[in-house]
Design brief:
Blueprint: E1 2-4, H1 10-23, E2 28-32, H2 38-51, E3 55-56, H3 65-78, E4 84-88, H4 97-110, E5 116-120, H5 126-138, E6 142-146, H6 155-164, E7 168-172, E8 180-182, H7 185-192, H8 198-209, H9 212-221, H10 227-240, H11 243-247, H12 254-257, H13 265-283, H14 287-291, H15 298-308, H16 312-330
Parallel strand pairs: 1-5, 2-3, 2-4, 5-6, 6-7
Antiparallel strand pairs: 7-8
Helix pairs in contact: 1-2, 3-4, 5-6, 10-13, 13-15, 15-16
Length: 347
């Protein structure tokens, strides 16, 4: 059962938890007991449908504690054969006594194995106060920290943990249902100190690329890096999530301490747009051109540009980027990029 203040990301966290358990091979189902916020049920239903998870929210029109209890009882009965049941409760503006009483009564009906408090990473020192109040009212077995992809680093959450003695269970690190990570103290501290999180990055790569990734990487290091490989690399990047999120997992000294790795939003937006543009251009190439870029002469550049609705300069920029990537792979062990990134691919 999840609970927390309004705007903490609780509803999205329910869908994320369902997706997390779904990827573990379990059968999750979600029950929405928020009968006060009109969009809550629709939002959670859409999220569950997007990942193929069963959802129950009752009929429209009802409100109040009795309606919330009725929905939960019916949902528990409907999903009694499922492995994991996740119950979303109404968000609180503050710790109103009547809403706390509703949480207590819902808890008596659900009898949850875990009662998770959802906190916004930017809440700061108020986290401790909120956590203590919720813990005294309904008991907390774990905490989910959301919006960790923003400027806040979650220090307030640490205060909450110290206050109630409940562990941080998960971190929300993005904006989609996929962006939930199991909390591990060493990873959290590593990111907090700017040391990156290579372990999480590797796991994300394995999840997105599959078992063929290692074999492909071996071919690249042997010099067999084609435009087709570059295309697949860009596809993988898009599956793994926003570039800003990926680069936050890298140590600040990566690539020989590039000044910078400046993680400003504008730079990463340009980068995403540029990579997408490159992919569109490659869609206009033949299989032969993708496999052997050396055959691409001026006449082919003109044809590719027309097919992609691009300028010839953009096609030539892609070819330069490909050559740079090829050179980078060959000199990867040196730890320093041997070139300047093309315009629009600045980090």
């Amino acid at each position: 059962m999840l609970f927390g203040l309004h705007g903490s990301g609780k509803t999205l966290s329910c869908a994320r938890l369902a997706r997390y358990f779904q990827k573990k091979g379990l059968k999750p189902a979600v029950i929405c007991a928020d009968v006060y916020r009109p969009a809550a049920k629709d939002q959670l239903k859409q999220l569950c449908e997007s990942i193929g998870v069963p959802f129950y929210g009752g009929a429209d029109g009802g409100s109040g504690t009795q309606e919330a209890l009725r929905i939960v009882e019916a949902g528990l009965k409907e999903f009694e054969k499922y492995d994991v049941l996740i119950v979303d409760t109404a968000g609180r503006h503050a710790l109103e006594e009547d809403m706390i009483e509703e949480l207590r009564r819902l808890g008596e009906v659900v009898r949850p194995d875990h009662r998770l408090l959802v906190l916004d990473a930017s809440i700061g020192q108020l986290a401790a106060t909120q956590a203590k109040a919720f813990d005294e009212a309904v008991g907390i077995t774990g905490i989910i920290i959301t919006k960790m992809d923003g400027t806040a680093k979650g220090g307030g959450a640490l205060s909450a943990v110290a206050e109630v003695g409940a562990p941080i269970a998960f971190l929300g690190v993005g904006e989609t249902v996929e962006d939930l990570e199991k909390f591990e103290p060493d990873r959290f501290i590593s990111r907090l100190l700017g040391m990156g999180d290579i372990k999480s990055l590797v796991e994300k790569m394995e999840e997105s690329l599959g078992a063929e990734a290692a074999e492909a990487a071996t071919d690249w290091l042997r010099g067999k890096f084609t435009l087709k490989d570059l295309y697949e690399q860009l596809e993988a990047l898009r599956k793994m999530g926003p570039l800003k999120q990926l680069f936050q997992m890298l140590p600040l000294g990566m690539f020989g301490g590039l000044p910078g790795l400046k993680l400003d939003d504008e730079a990463f937006q340009i980068t995403d747009e540029k990579l997408h543009r490159f992919k569109v251009i490659m869609d206009s190439m033949t299989k032969e051109e993708l496999a052997n870029p050396k055959i691409i002469d001026r006449s082919r550049v003109l044809r590719i540009a027309r097919g992609a609705g691009a300028r010839t300069e953009e096609v030539n920029e892609l070819l330069r980027y490909y050559k740079m990537m090829q050179k980078a792979i060959k000199t990867m062990r040196g730890g320093r990029l041997p070139f300047k990134l093309p315009k629009g691919l600045r980090f």
